[in-house]
Structure formats: C-alpha cells, structure tokens
Request: fold
Amino acid sequence: MNVVGFVSSYCEGRLVRGAVDSLLEVELDRLYIYEGPAGPPLEPELEAEHASELARRNHETPAGGVVVHRGRWRTDGRKRNDALQRIKHDYPEGPTWVVVVDADEVLVNGRYLRDRLAWLVANDRERGASIATPDNPPMARWPLHLVEHDGSMGIITARVFRADLLRSIDHSSSIVTNVAGVRDGWGNYAERSRVWIERWLHAIDNGAMIAWPPLPCEPHLVHRSNLRLPGRTGLRMSEQELAEFARAQAEELAAAEPQPADVAGFDFERRP
Reply:
C-alpha cells in the first residue's frame, strides 16, 4: 500500500507550513506540493509579498522525498488532475492512497490515518472487492470531518482517495472519472447535529456518555482561511473554474447529490 500527500498552494505565506507539517505525520511515501495559481495570477507585487514559505524550514521528509512543482493552471481542477496523473505515473501499482490538504488547512491526528487506510485495503481484500463488480466495489475514498474557523463542521469526501481507481479529476475535486469511465460527483455535507443530539440524549437516558465529533484520535481537517494574508482572502476558485463547473452541472455531470450513506459505501450514522 502506498500513501502519498498532496498540498495545493498559491501565495499562502507561512500558512502552508502548517499544512505540510500536519501531512508529514501520516508517514507518507512521498509528498507533492503544487505551487501556483489556478486561474489568473495575483499582481507581481502581491505574489512577492505573499510567497509561500516552502523552503524556509527543514522537514523530516518522507522516504520518497518531497516533490515541489511550480506552475500556472487554468483551473483548480486542472491543477489537481495534473497532480493525480503525476502520482499515477510514479506509483503504477496500487493501492495508492492520496491525502489532500490545501495550504490553508491543517490535518489533525494524521498519525492515525494510515491505520484506517490499511484497514480499508484489508477489508476490501477480505470481501473480494473489485472495480469490475459494480455491486462490490473497493472503497475509493474516505470522508473526513472539516471544522471551519467559526466552529461549524461538515463532512468532506474528496480529500482521501485512491489514485489507482481514478482516471481523472475533471472539475476541482467535485467531479471525477474512475478507471471504469464512470463520472461521479463527490460532494460535501453539513454534519447533522440532530443525529448526534439524539445519540447524546439516548446516552443520558441510559446513564452513559458519548464523545462529540471529531472523535478522539479521528483524523480531521481544520480550515484556516481566516488566517490568509490580505490580498488572498476570499480568493478561491477562479471565474473560469466556476464557469466549467456550471457547464458540468448543465451536462448533468453533477446531478442529484448522493445521500451520505451512498458515498463510497460509507454509512455516516454507523461508522465502522
């Protein structure tokens, strides 16, 4: 089993260091950092002022090293697909898991993530999962909780996935094509407080206690976009990316959002 990390960054100052440090706790085989705009670049003076601090600190690098690629991409989707194709080239034999952390995010409890990925691979092997059998496919991704800077929380489904099961990332990380040629929409979901409140009330009735998500030792993401430097605040997808996503929706590529229990066979209310 291969486990690699991917950081998408552009003019994030020292913020990117947190993303890199947190990913290295996963004990990666290799870390890929793609630095550069996805869409129109900033003005030259802002680029210089907010340059990402990628080489100002010595990191304990993975066995395969750290790959830093600088470039410019038309859209966020093309940037991420570029990285996917490089990873597939470097690791032709799977299973190959990719853990994605954007430069304004931090992965918490990443040191425990590899345990989960090893369990997923073993479980797929035990049940004879195969991409050739639609009724028994392997787990292509694993959802993570995402905590926003205001304390709100959601579930993000496209940050831990198997590169060997994907053909391409088509639009940002929301629409992908798997190796069987099937396109899929990978959406995000708000955490359902009602489910946890009901569990909490049930526990109280039985004199028990339960932990609130994210659970202890559970790998999850923290979004730190509020710490972006002035001039970078709010700069997310380019207008071109939004146009391409709208076109994908018009083509019904991002049709009906799947229910949480349908996401890669993962039951959000009864997690293993």
Summary: The mean pLDDT is 81. Residues 2-265 form one domain. The CA atoms of residues 8 and 102 lie 5 Å apart. The radius of gyration is 19 Å.
